[in-house]
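Case study: Energy-coupling factor transporter transmembrane component T.
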Amino acid sequence: MSNRLIGYQSGQGFLYGLSGASKMIFFILVSVACMATYDPRFILVIGFLSIYLFKRANIRWKDVSFVVEIIGAVALFNLVMVYLFDPSYGEEIYGTKTVLIEGWGRFYLTSQEIFYLANLLLKYFSTVPLAILFLMTTHPSQFAASLNQIGLPYKFAYSVSLTLRYIPDVQEEFFTIRKAQEARGLDLSKKAGLVKRIRGNLQIVLPLIFSSLERIDTISTAMELRRFGRYKKRTWYVHKSLTKQDYLVILLAFLLLGISIGLIFLNQGRFYNPWL
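Here is what the predicted structure looks like once written out:
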């Protein structure tokens, strides 16, 4: 497994040539479009588009597998909790009830509940890849410049840039310390018990967090000494003006958002009902 969970990777191709602002606008608008509707036809289109963009970006599976596995586990846990809280929510949405598995008490499984939960799962695996693509194809400095370009204060944009730059360093330190601990006989691999692994990792993470806070304070002091934030505006070394390709990407994002809104009117609500 790579020592870095996720972060910017330099490369060449269509996505790397786009401005950070256009990629951010595309990610935000398409994510909103996916979250606004529960029409699986539209969500699947976005999912296939995400897979296609992954191939275009030449991102290797081993570079994102760990993050995808974590997100998959969280998504499955969320589906289980949604079902446990209200097993009949699907039939309330779609106005019909087709029992597949008889359960005990309030717990049973219907086609409508499966369809609703499947839509939730599709939302995860349609929007999360777009977020990963954005982070892995956008340089932190360009990301900050894009935030400022779309109207956010440059102080906020710069703090985001520093965070994105610092997270990989913290990850590297964490894995380095963990390997050193394992070399001293502390087993933190999958062979160890879950409780032991959690306790051992916490012993590494907590001191690392406090040392990170000290570094942040040092960086903040250094920036204040250099009179950072004195002026209302600033220039960006990696600022990239929008090109024809950027405008086409933004236009596609608005088109997908418009289709999502149109489906809401067509389906007479956010939920597509195949039982009608």
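For the exam, be able to explain this: The chain has a mean pLDDT of 81.
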